[in-house]
Amino acid sequence: MASKLSKNGAHALNFSSGVLEVAGVADSVRDSILDATERFPGTSGELALENPAALQITGLDKSFGEREVLKDLSLSVPEGAFVAVIGHSGCGKSTLLRLIAGLDEPTSGEIALDGETVSGINPQVRVMFQEARLLPWKRVIDNVALGLPRAARPRAQGVLESVGLGDRAGDWPSILSGGQRQRVALARALAGAPRFLLLDEPLGALDALTRLEMQALLESIWQEHKFTALLITHDVEEAVTLADYVVVMDEGRFIVNEPVPLPRPRDHSDPQFVEITQRLLKQVRAMKK
What would the DSSP string read from start to end of the chain? Predict the structure, then answer.
């Protein structure tokens, strides 16, 4: 883990470096970074050193007219990592995800996936949104198979079974619960065998119990398929539950990267889990809303 000052004063977070560099940050943030590394030795880049960078963001800026939304962001994410991004509404999280997905273009800077600059929609990237966005006139299996060649229909059935809805293939989306519709959306994202799964608050509208079930499902599928995942969420506890690293954003900048060096599945009663969650909550609450 490292946080360093870029040429324009923004903070670059480098997961692929085994050297901790902390410069140009507030004392409270610097202390938090150093404290996390001191308490969890071996986590400052250990995961990244084992895997090459799958996602590389360099000097990324995004403006809408005169409004600067993202400010000189740099980020390196190793292959197969699960990274969560948290922050207040309007800090630029969803804009960042749309740029990574190729749904929008940066004002300046570069995003590279597997060393290739993002320029438009990439078939190796799938996005799961807060709303399931299922087509109501298509049955469940047809929603999952959307965009796939006809020969891939058996694969659609397979991923539907992997999310626990194999017996609902012939149903209409309208008769499914909210959690079931999100499972279908997840199956649709997985049907294309993506290398990158981008999650834009996909569990935000679910009830508490269904949300916990979906978190466990996401984690097990990520471990099975070994794709690189980036989760946007407002839920700090959810971020600590799922992520290898939690990145905090504020006003279009990366503020800090918090490693989560805990065994999976995460035990919410584990003192280290509680400590990491509370520290992140304190950091988020301290930021300007």
Answer: --EEE-TTSPEEEETT-SS--B-SS-HHHHHHHHHHHHHSTT-SSHHHHHS-EEEEEEEEEEEETTEEEEEEEEEEEETT-EEEEE--TTSSHHHHHHHHHTSS--SEEEEEETTEE--S--TTEEEE-SS----TTS-HHHHHTTTS-GGGHHHHHHHHHHTT-GGGTTS-GGGS-HHHHHHHHHHHHHHT--SEEEEESTTTTS-HHHHHHHHHHHHHHHHHH--EEEEE-S-HHHHHHH-SEEEEEETTEEEEEEE----SS--TTSHHHHHHHHHHHHHHHHS--
Domain CATH code at residue 29: 3.40.50.300
| Domains: count for the chain | 1
pTM for this structure? 0.81
Please check whether residue 141 lies inside any domain of the structure. Answer: no
| pLDDT of res. 20 | 29
Q: Which residue range forms the structural domain that includes residue 229?
A: 3-124+194-286
Flag whether 45 is in a domain.
yes
Confidence band (pLDDT; 50, 70, 90) for 51?
A: low
Residue 132 belongs to a domain:
no
